[in-house]
Amino acid sequence: MFPRRRDPVSCASVAESDVVVRLRDVAKSFRPRPGESKAPAALRGVSLDAHAGERIVIVGPSGCGKSTLLRLIAGLDVPDGGTISVGGRSLEGVAPQDRDVAMVFQGYALYPHMTVAENIAFPLRMRRMPAAEREAALSEVARVLRIEALLRRRPAELSGGERQRVAIGRALVRRPKVFLFDEPLSNLDAALRNDLRVELAQILRTLRGACLYVTHDQVEAMTLADRIVVMSQGAVRQVATPRELYERPADSFVATFVGTPKMNVVPGEVREGLVRFGPFEAADASASLPSSVLVGVRPEDLEVVDAPGDGPFEVVATEPLGAETVLFLRAGDLDVRVRRSGFEVRRPGERLHVRARTEKLHFFDPSKDGLRIP
User: Fold this and answer.
1) Sequence-distant (≥ 6) Cβ neighbours of residue 35 within 8 angstroms
2) Separation between Cα atoms, residue 112 and residue 62, nearest integer Å
3) CA distances, 316 to each of 110, 330, 359 (Å)
4) 285: pLDDT confidence band, cut at 50, 70 and 90?
5) What confidence score (pLDDT) does residue 286 get?
6) β 227-232/210-214 pair status
7) Considering the chain, what is the average pLDDT of its residues?
8) Is the peptide bond before 8 cis (omega within 30 degrees of 0)?
9) Please, which pLDDT band fits residue 74 given cuts at 50, 70 and 90?
10) Fewer Cβ close by (within 10 Å): the C or N end of the chain?
11) Phi and psi of 48, rounded to 5°?
C-alpha cells in the first residue's frame, strides 16, 4: 500500500513534474485586534514547492503563520492573495474534501462512539470504497502503525500515544497527494514524544505524497525533515536542509532560532583588520566586512581555556545534561552559552577564560536586517 519513495530528496535534481504542492505569493490577514486599525499579516508573500516524497518541516515562533499555512492548503481558510496548487491543479474554490489532502491536528479529533477500526476506515466509507478494499487498507495501516490489537477499542480506552497513532492512521489510509501535520506530538509527554518521533520518521519515509509538518520542537524538525522552512512574522526566512540551516543560517534570526542551545550573536566592530566582539577578537580574513557587524558563534565553538589570573567571564549558571554541559557565562553586559562535553559543574561567580574558534565564526549585517555576510 505504501510504496517506498526515493530517499533522500535532492531538490536540485527533482523534476518539475514531481512538484506536488506549489505556493506562490500566498498572503493572509485576519481581523484587526481591539484598538488596532490594521489587521496583522498572518502570511506575507509565502512561496514554496513541496515535491513527491519530500518531508518539509515548518518551524518558527508562535504566531508566525505556520498553522495558518497548513489551514490554507487544507481549505479551512481562504488566502487573501497568491495561488495554491496541488498536483498542478489550482485549489481556488475547491472544497476541503475534494483537495486530496489529509490533515492531522494537535488534537486527536477521533469519533468517540466509533472503534479504532471505524475511525481509521471512516474516510474510505465516505468514498464508498468496496468493503474488501477497505479492510485491506485498514489492515495495512494497522500493521504499519502497530495497532492491530487496538482495532476493536474506542478512543476512551486508549492512551494519548495510541490515540495519536489512530489519528495518523486515518490520514495514511486515504493515500492523499498531501499530508499535513500540525504539531501532532505536542500533547504527549516527553518520553512518549521521543518514542513516537522515531516511529513517525520511519513511517514518513515510506510515503510518496508530499508532507508538510509544523512543530515547535527542533529535535523533531531535524529528525523528520528533508528540508526545513523557518518562518517569522508571516514570512519565510530560509528554506534549507537541516545541515545547511545549522552551518549557514541566512540571517541572524535563523542563526539564533535554529540550534539548542542557540547561537551566540554578539555586536562587533571592524578596525585595522581586526573584528572585536565583546572580549574576543579575530582577524578579518575576508577583508570585506562593514565597520559594524553581528558576530555569531555556536556554543560548541567557544572553549574554556587555562590562563593566568581571573578570566573576563563569570559563571551565571550550569546546566549539566549528562553527556554534555551547558555553561551560562557573563562578561559585563554580554551573556554567552558554552557547550562542553561530559558532566561538569561550575560554581556561580567562578571566573573563566574563554576562546572563540575564529574559523567557525558567522557574520551578519545589522544594517540589512541581520542578513548573512558571505
Assistant:
1) none
2) 30
3) 47, 7, 27
4) low
5) 61
6) unpaired
7) 90
8) yes
9) very high
10) C
11) -165, 145
- Three cell numbers written together for 318: 550550569
Provide the residue type at 90 as one letter: S
Cβ–Cβ under 8 Å, residues 218 and 246: no
Residues above pLDDT 90, as percent of the chain: 71
Q: How confident is the model at residue 108 (pLDDT cuts 50, 70, 90)?
A: confident
List, in order of start, the domains of the chain with CATH numbers: 16-257 (3.40.50.300), 264-372 (2.40.50.140)
**Torsion angle of C-alpha atoms 138, 141, 146, 148, degrees rounded to 10:** 0
Look up residue 64 and give its three cell numbers.
508566525
Is 23's pLDDT higher than 70? yes
C-alpha cell at 232: 517569522
3-state secondary structure of 180: strand
| Peptide linkage before 261 cis (omega within 30 of 0) | yes
Query: By the 8 A CB rule, do 116 and 77 touch?
Result: no
Return d(Cα 35, Cα 287) in angstroms, integer.
49
Q: How far apart are CA 3 and CA 6, in angstroms?
A: 10
Q: What is the reported pTM?
A: 0.88
State the cell numbers at 321: 545534561
